[in-house]
Amino acid sequence: MPGTDVVMTFSFETLDDARARGMARPPDRLLQSLSLDARVGKLLAVDASRAPWSRSRWRVPHPRQSTPDPWFRARPVSWSSRPPRTATAARAWVGVIERAVRASAALHALEAPLLVTFNPLLAAFGSLRWARDVVFYARDDWAAYPPHRHLWPLYEVAYEELRKRRRLVCAVSPGLLERIGAGGMVVPNGLDPREWDRPSPRPGPGPPLFAYAGVLDDRIDVALVRAVAEAVPEAEVVLAGPVLDDAHVAPLSRLPNVRLLGSLSRPRVVDLLMASNVGLVPHRRTELTERMSPLKLYEYLAAGCRVVGTDLAPMRGVDPAVELRDSPSAFAAAARDALVRGRLTDVQRTTFVETNSWASRHADMLTWALRAGGPR
Q1: Which residue has the higher pLDDT, 249 or 202?
Q2: Which of 59, 238, 254, 271 has an alpha carbon 20 to 30 Å from 205's alpha carbon atom?
Q3: What is the mean pLDDT of the chain?
Q4: DSSP string, 155-218
Q5: How far apart are the first and last CA of the chain?
Q6: Rounded to two decimals, what is the model's pTM?
Q7: What is the distance between the alpha carbons of residues 207 and 224, in angstroms, rounded to a whole number?
């Protein structure tokens, strides 16, 4: 029996971007999961639209694949280099993208495909009547995402449209699903067991490590990081990730036992976490952080790190090795205690990885989407 054809669209990025970051984020992982699921027939991966003159369309090279990709690829072209600001403009902008996606699906002979999109505007404003069904995969609350502040009013309209059209929504946290207010399921972030299938390293001669792996911007509570660095001066606090707000994180670079490593390749991120003692999630309490599913939380535990984080709803109940504190003094004390308690055993961390895999999460999501069925 042939499988269901699927179209998966990125939000505001491309397959080249995904490859450059090591296929490590939710859209990248979903694409890989769909390509391996026997229930999926033909699979079409759709980049975010790019203006034909945009350098960003081709800016990230990727190595030549030794085998062909298990999916087709579409690259919609937009003649506007700026995203729309109003619902009227969004409908026109989405219409161009939708026609390109539908044409590509027809070119590759996809029949009544299931559309899974990370783009809230496409899910909300596209007609998409040619699709078997539509699933909006919400990986963040776009209406609280600081780099898109100028689009927040439009995202609010998009959420209302999703509710009116009864689109299916899967969201990374219960708070985000409730925020959007549409029917759906929660799909937290997960893990690829192959990345973590190695024994824990023996302790080295260097100082103990507190690690943070992720974007460095104003979501970080600088006071919490400073408190840890000052409370445990014999340890190093290493922060790996792109710096998106230099002014906000600059005070940390002046602390003697804090290092900002910048962006690391995916294998180096895994190596860093495997060598670390404690993973930190020092997030400020914002609408965004209250509704996200911190991928770093799962990766810290997969690496065998104990975790100290801010007491946010998505952090609660994930694992007993996670300690949640809010004040700088309590956060630092928990970090010091986690260091004394030591890393998780290989049995503990591999059990966690196996029960929180991307493959199982996405298999459940696809089962739910296929059962929902029917145009909306």
Answers
A1: 249
A2: 254
A3: 90
A4: HHHHHHHHHHTT-EEEESSHHHHHHHT-SEEE----B-GGGG-SPPPPP-SS--EEEEES-BST
A5: 25
A6: 0.90
A7: 20
Cα dihedral angle (173, 174, 176, 177), rounded to 10 degrees?
Answer: 120
3 state SS of 98: helix
Q: Which residues of 315-352 are buried (b: 16+ CB within 10 A; e: fewer)?
A: beebbebbbbbeebebbbbbbbebbeeebbeeeebbeb
Of the pLDDT bands very low, low, confident and very high (cuts 50, 70, 90), residue 57 is: very low
In this predicted structure, the answer to whether residue 196 has a pLDDT above a threshold of 70 is: yes
Rounded Cα distance between 189 and 357, Å, is 9
CB contact at 8 A, 370 and 114: yes
Q: What is the pLDDT of residues 100-146, one digit of tens each?
A: 999 999 999 999 999 999 999 999 999 999 999 999 999 999 999 98
**Contact by Cβ (8 Å): 278, 338:** yes
C-alpha dihedral sign at 111, 115, 121, 125 = positive
Residue 365, C-beta contacts closer than 8 angstroms, at least 6 positions apart: 135, 170, 185, 187
Rounded CA-CA distance 322/204 in Å is 24
Secondary structure class of 243 (helix, strand, coil)? strand
> What pLDDT score was predicted for residue 62?
35
**293 closest CA partner among 208, 187, 143:** 187
Adjacent-strand bridge partners of 40: 4
Distance of CA 197 to the CA centre of its chain: 21
Taking the C-alpha atoms of residue 121 and residue 88, their distance in angstroms, rounded to an integer, is 11
What the block records as the tokens of 217 is 């911007």
CA distance 330 to 73: 49
What does the alpha-carbon distance between residue 128 and residue 105 come to, in Å, rounded to a whole number?
Answer: 12
Edge-to-edge, what's the strand order for the sheet holding 306-309?
A: 258-262, 236-240, 209-213, 278-281, 306-309, 322-324
> What is the set of domains in the chain, with CATH numbers?
4-190+357-372 (3.40.50.2000), 193-354 (3.40.50.2000)
Alpha helices in the chain (DSSP H): 15-20, 26-36, 87-107, 120-125, 152-164, 174-180, 222-231, 246-253, 266-275, 295-303, 328-341, 346-355, 358-372
**CA–CA distances in Å: residue 170 to residues 15, 26, 181:** 21, 12, 11
